[in-house]
Design brief:
21 strands, binds zinc ion, 585 residues, binds ligand BES, 7-stranded mixed sheet, single chain, alpha+beta
Amino acid sequence: MARIDPHSFADDAQPRQTHLAWAARVNFATRTLEGTAEIHFSRGGAEVDLDSRGLSVQAVTTPAGKPLPFALGPEEPILGTRLRITLAADDPRCAVHYRTGPEASALQWLTPEQTAGGRHPFLYSQCQAIHARSVVPLQDSPRLRITYQAALTAPRELRALMAASAVDRTESGATATERWAMEHPIPPYLLAFAVGALEARELGPRSCVWAEPPLVTRAAWEFAEVDRMLTQAEGLLGPYVWGRFDVLVLPPSFPYGGMENPTLTFLTPTVLAGDRSLVNVLAHELSHSWTGNLASNATAEDFWLNEGFTVFIERRILAVLEGTESVALHAAAGRQSLDDAVAGFRDRPALTRLRTHLAGIDPDDAYSQVPYEKGYLFLRALEDAVGTPRFDAFLRRYLQTFAFQSLTTAEFLAFLAAELPEASRAVDIPAWVDGEGIPPSAPRPASARLERIRSLGARVPSSAEAAGWTPLEWQVYLGQLPRPASRETVEALDRAFRLSAARNPDVLVAFLVPALSAGHAAAVERAQSFLAEVGRMKYLKPLYAALAARPETRSVAESCFERLRGRYHVIAAAGVESLLRRARA
Ligand code: BES
Ligand code: ZN
């Protein structure tokens, strides 16, 4: 017997899950889900180990109600609790009757005051990487895909949504039950749902956007290009197989920019910049419909297979929609964030590899821009070596070969060697995949607009020079300021361009980070108010880190976090907490 994933109790000698039938009641008063998870396996008559975290299990039975032996192990720090069930010899299914814990790591329960509408509570899930087990007991490894059907019962004045095809809605008394089906086998981290006062606006023949009523009109404008993105992606990668591509705008505490839940992408409201300048997040999540949701990473150690490919495709779509200048700027901003991530892993350089070793490491702690931007550069290096037409054909064959499968980095490398043998002559594949840091030969983004920004260095541009800069150009310029930046520079920038009032949060944070390190007083004020508005980790972490890095503002970081941590998602709060702990040491 052997574990198939360092982050799961699943064992390859045991039966494998194939299907989930899930029914749960959403209880906002107790902040729990109560229900039954009926799981189908490849065979019966054996023991099976499931992952769980914080669940209270009342009983395990066959679907017909015959009790089955089960045992919950001790709680382990990263994995959670093993739930061992003995399946009946004549039935390869079990029904777990259980309740989630009030601290379930995948769930965020919001009070009405924490929503845009202000009148109704809200609940949403975020299961990647290993949080599905806090909602449903299952083999929580992307190697073991499931189809599912689900029924959620919630207060009738709310709308429940799930990342699957809607079946029906029935109302009874104070509650409504909504049902869904996911007919394609998905990795468990793609289970997703939300419950709240939500409204939809049509975006195109296959898409609508869901949001709280005060946001829905803005959201529909921001994402109006979605159908063009879909068409472009299909041209590059083959048909979109998931049916609908809807989008859900979450409350501000959503800890990520986006999450590629099948048929229903989840997005942070911080992408509603009012000028479509952050639609790359939408292009990114759409791209995952192929890379990630069709061909999935086998474990969190192969996470770059999901994210590196997806950034690559995101930028191919943007090249058509916005042009190659925009892509060069995105790649340059990406390279800056990659260099920051590599510097941040000074004491843990093994986490700068594409293929990581994560036994004993929580995937949330290993999360960084490395799999995204180093993965992107690696694929660019391969594309440069064989030419775009050959690389595109390779991408399509890759997706055909691994559709609805999960693969390891080793399996990818074997496929690459067979399909593009000449790539290994031009590209030092072991250095990219298993080496630390960034190979010096990495492709460098270049464009005319980028060169103009680079030639400024740390000089403050004149208003003529910066006239017509897009938010992305500001982000790249601010990202190239020396650390720490000079106080005169950040003050002059703020005076001339009002950057501490920037509407695009990427620009705002790109300004606040050097401004905080330079001790700019207005930046401390703005950082504090912004930290109370959003919960996206991409913004929380650099701002808290910049505040905590200076002795003069360390206590601001601590007191801000004490005051606000209850508003953040548990994953985000844990991330900030460990960052502050390291800053104190
Ligand atoms: N799948 C990720 C988000 C994620 C990764 C959640 C790991 C939990 C664990 C999503 O596709 C993503 O990459 N989001 C980015 C968007 C960006 C690259 C455009 C984000 O949230 O910043
Ligand atoms: Zn992604």
